[in-house]
Amino acid sequence: MKMKAIIEEVIVQPDKIQPIIVDFQIGKLKDDEVKSMSCGLFRDQTRDKTVLALSNGRIVYKGYEPDPEKESVRTMLVLHNKKTGKVRLIEAERWQVTPVLDKPVIEDSRHNVDEKIVMLNKQFGSKKVKRRTEQFEKMKVDVDAVKDQLEKAVLNVEIDKMDLSNQLPANESAEAALLPPCNRDATNVKDVYNVYDIIPRSKLETLYEHAMEVLNGNVEGKSKFFKHTLRSIQSDLDNANKIALLLYIEMINAWFVMPLRDAKKRDVVVCQVSEEVNQYIIDTYSVASANGRSRPNTMKDKGLIHCMILALTVSNFMLDLDSFREMLGIRTSLKKLTDLAKIIGATASKEDKKVMVLKVPLPKPVSLVRKGKRKGKSDSQMLI
User: Fold this and answer.
1) Where in the cell is it found (predicted)?
2) Domain count of the chain?
3) Per residue in 49-68, pLDDT tens?
4) How crowded is residue 4: how many other Cβ atoms within 10 Å of its Cβ?
């Protein structure tokens, strides 16, 4: 059907944000998915370009502003007034977006390329390619499983303490046991700690489905700290990952709150949504003994340190210790948390001493061992 119309106005405003037509590199957006998409325009300081970001809650897409000088034609939107028969032409821009396969949080780059290929094969490959990808993954060695097996194998190995007397000072050996790897030479605060050294990425991803339920409003029974932090990251492009980290903090806390008689049971449950995470927490924050699992003070310190590092990462590297302390089920003094925060490398804010900030360059390392007062012989004690 042909229609005649008079062009009333042509609107071209290159100095303003134009209407944007989005082209997805790997397909088209279904009509029923449009309402679930959220989007925003941001400025990429490193490339000095405007970037468009879209998310459906599971996948993030991004694309950069096209260069108008490289476009051979203009894309125009036609608005037709059926009553007057006149039309308006409005210039629009065509942006192409692609899925973001790597997460903003620091990731282990050793297998980055392989993992991207696997993800693409699973989502967009043919049936044959998907089948081969699944077979390939089954053949891979699970490094974390091998590590856990080795740790269990050496639990009962007796070591003569005299053999270690000349190897490591007390504070260095304690630091290695409680702190995850720390890049003290980092120039970006995001590079100081890698959250996947605390919980492997493959295990954290098993919490994503529950994280999306929380994002959609399922916050029953959550602490004030959890709800406050959740509100602050609602619009974050990586909110699913950060909520999963919050859930992991909550589960570590649940493990230490659990009565000892329950913690020694074989079928103990601290994480109902992931068996992998459940077993990982038990293995990481307890010690096996003849009478079952025990949780010495050193394990509690380790758990607190890990929780604080994750909380700092989620909260943009600023943590209110008062709010964090209220969330903990175990009795912990504010001074104890402050001491542990200093060991991590955080410093008190100038405005509020109860707010700890992680920033670079890091201050000089603080010893995990506190020297006691001299009473004849010098002694030292662990932070407990």
Assistant:
1) Nucleus, Nucleolus
2) 2
3) 888 888 887 788 888 888 77
4) 5
